[in-house]
Design brief:
- By secondary structure, the protein is α/β, with parallel strands linked by helices.
- 34% of the residues lie in helices and 20% in strands.
- The strands form 4 sheets. It has an 8-stranded mixed β-sheet with strand order 7-8-10-9-13-17-14-15, sandwiched between helices. It has a 6-stranded mixed β-sheet with strand order 1-6-5-2-4-3, covered by helices on one side. The protein has a 3-stranded mixed β-sheet with strand order 11-12-16, with helices on one face.
- Helix 2 packs parallel to helix 3, helix 9 packs across helix 14 and helix 12 crosses helix 14.
- The longest helix is centred in the N-terminal third of the chain and has 25 residues.
- The chain starts with a strand and ends with a helix.
- The structure holds ligand BES, manganese (II) ion and zinc ion.
Amino acid sequence: MTVTVSNSEASRGAATVTPVFTDKTGAVIAPTGLSAAVMAKRGFLGKPGQTLVVPGPTTRIFVGLGDASSVTTDQLRGASGAACRAAWNESALSIDLLDGLKKVDKQAAAQAIVEGVMCSTYQYSGKPQPNRCALTEVSVGPVGVRAVREGIRLGTASGEAIVLARELVNLPAADLTPAKFADRAIALAVEKGFSIEVWDEDRCRTERLGGLLGVAQGGLEPPRLLRFEWSPTSVGATATKKEKAALPLLAVVGKGITFDSGGLSLKTGEGMMTMKQDMAGAAATLALFTTLAELKPNCRVIGFACLSENLPGERATKPGDVHRARNGKTFEILNTDAEGRLVLADGLSLAVEEKPDAVINLATLTGAIVTALGKEITGLFSNHEGFTAQVKAASKLAGEPMWEMPVYAPYRKHIDSEVADMKNIGLPGQAGSIAAALFLKEFVGSTPWVHLDIAGTAWADSQSDLGPRGGTGAGVRTLMELAKAFSRP
Ligand code: BES
Ligand code: MN
Ligand code: ZN
């Protein structure tokens, strides 16, 4: 069961969420109905995200928002999430956090609040939860405000997309093979209104996807290459080639390793415990397409999901083997655990063949990015300043922290190979994430490109106000903002 969020008057008896602000000195301003003494006794300081529950005929939940003059949409998302966690056992909740806020954009604020609701109450559906969240009906106010209604519509679309990406990541690899991922994508394409093409193993062979096939050959599950497309004019199915060509074109490519054992360069038991997450880039890509019919950006968006398992079967790629990618370049595979870049080589080659204005890829690519940036910051690599600025702006609006890393050309020598155009690993212990980015760069030509390494951010090790341990849906909101930015006015 999921929560429905509406802009209608809350049902009788619904618990209420009220914001609490602090003044210039940082001291809490007592809201009506809550005495300073009670707040002090309960240690409630009105700090962003702090909650105070006051039981009664209707439960009242107070949530801190800090200084009213500097509240951000990120804080609203977090406060909304914290409030829902505090309201875990209530069935109906009325949230009005916009009262007293002048500077925030009402639509963006309402969207963030809904995202907070949907993210904080998400629970993996595959197991009956012992402490299931009771919330079913949430009303976000003020009621009757058009911008708020619009924010709720978009927040619901993005909340659902994030939840979808999380759910796909959380599914055991046995329940989400490349073929099963493709089946779900087909169903979603029909339901949400975008087009999809599915290439099976034979088609991947005739299309010369040597990177994807090379990874897949170690396992029994055949790979899939998915291509998604959304275009505003094709919704009416009447768009001509010329009409389509006049629109900006954004391409998105996702790493979709449904399980990464490392292949013959086998990971440790511990190292592969959470490797069902290795398709998070493909999940975010698919999740984006589920939102586009709601978002309606005036641009075309194409997407590619490169789906395979990485297993050490008898046919598996051996260290020293050489494979050829779609664009003709060859690589020597010296570590079969550096497989993400191999499947992306084909996905990126296909994407740039369609001459997009820009291509962005998302991948749980390197452990080294976790060492560099930790679990909350996505690594951003690029060959183009203008597109980098666009993606950074999108990530800022989305509230998904990213940090630009260098695609340092002199390190290209780290991936020089004696037998192929490049090898798939750099120097031991040195700039592993950059070596991976330099590898990917070989497949985008001169197309403006951004690579997001989400190896740290796609999976949460512990629960937070915005969700449980497990898949996070990293990248989904940034992609949505990017699609909006590509929209031609
Ligand atoms: N999927 C992993 C990267 C990863 C690590 C994702 C931790 C999420 C959390 C990737 O395929 C991988 O194994 N990378 C290797 C590359 C190395 C062999 C050059 C790594 O990071 O160790
Ligand atoms: Mn790997
Ligand atoms: Zn991997």
